[in-house]
Amino acid sequence: MTKFGNWTLSGLLRGGLSTNPSDIDHHWRSRVYEEDFRTIPFISLGAKAGYQITERASLFLAGNFDENFRAKGDMTVYDIPTGARSSTTFKDGAGMDFYAFTMSAGFKLTF
């Protein structure tokens, strides 16, 4: 955190690994798809600027970017009515990634 008069600036950098993520999709065609992934790296970046209006009131604006990098995983298919499992597990038959950018702004009052 850094202060410049009434302004306060802060940042965030975070990274890591998601371990053993999985997914279960129920489809209208009477199928269930189970997907298992290996370790997936992620990163998160953020910044926040605040302005102190008075001793007890301040404004802020913040932004974050989060990304889970593209990964492939194995997929198994089940028939919903019978519960029967497909004879094949589709190696690298599933894929996923995710990213999001969020903004927030606010007024903070302490009393």
TrEMBL record:
Keywords: Hydrolase, Protease. It comes from Aminobacter anthyllidis. GO terms for molecular function: aspartic-type endopeptidase activity. This is Omptin family outer membrane protease. GO terms for cellular component: cell outer membrane. The keyword Phosphoprotein does not apply. Pfam families: Omptin (PF01278). Gene3D superfamilies: OMPT-like. GO terms for biological process: proteolysis.
